[in-house]
Amino acid sequence: MINRESKQKEFIKQYYEKRIDDLIGKMTLEEKVGQLVQISPSIFGAFGLTFDETIEKLINGEITPAEFEALERNYREDEIRQGTLGCMGGVHGAEKSNELQKIAVEESRLGIPILFGLDVIHGYRTIFPIPLAEACSFDIEKIKESARIAAKEASAAGLHWTFAPMVDISRDPRWGRVAEGAGEDPYLGSVIAKARVEGFQGESLDNPESILACAKHFAGYGAPDGGRDYNTVDMSLQTLHDVYLPPFKAAAEAGVGTFMSAFNDLNGIPCTVNKYLLTDVLREKFGFNGFVVSDANSIPEVVVHGYAEDNKAASKKALNAGLDMDMSQGTYRNELPELVKEGDILEEVLDEAVRRVLRVKFLLGLFDNPYRTDAKKEEKTLLCKEHLEAARDISRRSIVLLKNENNALPLKKDLKKIAVVGPLAENAAEMLGTWSHTGNPSDVVTIISGIKAAVSTETEILYAEGCKITGEECIDFEGAVRVAKESDVIIAVVGENSDMSGEAASRIDINLPGKQEELLKELRKIGKPLIVVLINGRPLTIPWEAENVDALVEAWQLGTQSGNAIADVLFGDYNPSGKLVATFPYSVGQVPIYYNNPMTGRPAGKIKFTSKYIDGPAEPLYPFGFGLSYTTFKYENLSILSAENKIGDTVAVKVYVTNTGEVSGEEVVQLYVSDVVASRVRPVKELKSFEKVLLQPKECKTIIFKLNTKDLGFHDENMNYVVEPGLFKVYVGTNSKECLEGEFTIVALD
Ligand code: NOJ
């Protein structure tokens, strides 16, 4: 059976390659270049702005989604008719995309279908938690399901391609785009990259409910100097290969159809024109055979980097480096024809890029089925009940309980009066997080609504805004204090605006902005139980909150179902199980801070001359992997079933985990390894496996991890992956700091 299937696949592949050859043979130079062009519709007279500027205003909230949709657009029908536009960004909606597709298929000379792409980052209309939050669930099946639902909705709205997942590792919470990734860990990042690719692309790309995924931003984009977006990245190749590339490799292995190059330069070469990355690593090492798209306008930006004298030189470098498609301004369209005519680009190189794009269009089934949806299907699919339920479920799983003193949580549902205060308590738009312009705030369950739906009809909810998210005005501290004094418990909802994270949203300080902390201090003085719910897109520095409030709930930006999911956790309908995937610094001065740092010769200790600060702790506020539950878990009897192993052997690591509390709960059992002595300095520990288990009260489960010794290596100075014999320590526990310890050795092969 498998054999028959793989033969069939091979046959289809060969059949496509023949059709591609045939098409390329018929294409003019302009038509070929057209396949490498992605442009968005232009907007007529939109406040006198370009399309990209308009998008920026949309993302910043200066233009509402409704205003944006109402703007008159030029959909470039003539270019489609001429066969010089192969891909469009920014077009969505079944009717419009079908209308444009019809022009491409029926009116262009060769009838090559258009590819429609968009940033569908955490849901299309049903908005899921920001990716950073979702990663905290450590729930790989749910993460995959969330991407699948995003694909179903996006494809129903006429899209074929999402510019996701973002798989950039980041160790710098000042960088706004940490919101879009899976945090700081390469192993977890790889597992999640695979799940998201599989969710978007499904089992087969030609399933009309699948969309093409895009691993971005290749590479190193998450490590900009100073945490400032688009800034230069300079790192050793070993760090690149050991830490930043694994999720990209995992995406390639999972069959991702496209990659996006990063804006930044990496060790002096802009990624857009970086042959080492785009060809040597991506195609030769990872065996990727889809196509690579630039980031928006990044080809002309190579000139701004000072790495090419003009757009023509930048285009030549880009195509020759392995960058297939130009996103945004039509630089390839303007420059490539002449470069080919003048012999500066070989026609074979151009043809190869065209082939890669056409291949993906064939794999999506667009030649046989160019209209994959219609308005009816779109209406039925978006925001349907099943999608909302799934969103609520993954949202509550993404919440991380950071503190819960004196069992402040869960709350009883029959309290007389609950004060819900703070600028994010009744807010809908800010729950959606970054990259959610296809969502609609009117779909959002606000926190107040979620709480009202959860409590008894007798319970009174008193609301006061207190202050704004940003700005120095106190607004209504008195009102907040008044309702708080009247109530049994205070729930304060504070955090960031959606546009304080995401692209071009790096922060110099990562504390609670505006007057929010002052508001919390006023509320604390009242002496009633103070529960703080955080809504934010990055780790924050919140030492005062960690010290002073009764309970601290990291709820991130959870999307459409925010209020319901948060209420589920606050009132104990769901026992929180999320764990941090990014370290929470104590102070911004500690950044970059991450759990898997290389071993220093002077680890922080009591004496002065060790690696620490004179004016604050070296330890983070909350470490990677940290998260509490309404129950407690006990770890016992860590044992390693084979003390001596050869490279390639599997090491079985066994541990008993017991739920020692009164309620059932899920625990993410985490396994870390460190290579004690190696030919390069190795991290103090690295996550190598985890398992999320559900335990009933008093239940004990035996967890057996099977570690492949082949996964315990690193890259040497020639970028060869090596596993070195010697002693390895194993740590198993509830977070990266609190672990049981064991050890084993890898012996040299004779
Ligand atoms: C720029 C961003 O860096 C990228 O992630 C996004 O996909 C493109 N713009 C398109 O919107």
TrEMBL record:
Domain Fibronectin type III-like: 667-736
UniProt keyword terms in alphabetical order: Glycosidase, Hydrolase, Periplasm, Signal
Keyword Hydrolase: yes
Pfam (any one): Glyco_hydro_3
Uppermost EC category: hydrolase
GO CC terms of this entry: periplasmic space
Gene Ontology biological process terms from the UniProt entry: glucan catabolic process
Name of the protein this chain belongs to: Periplasmic beta-glucosidase
Predominant location category: periplasm
Reaction it catalyzes: Hydrolysis of terminal, non-reducing beta-D-glucosyl residues with release of beta-D-glucose
Family, as annotated: Belongs to the glycosyl hydrolase 3 family.
Entry EC number(s): 3.2.1.21
Entry GO MF terms: beta-glucosidase activity
Compartments (UniProt record): Periplasm
Keyword Coiled coil: no
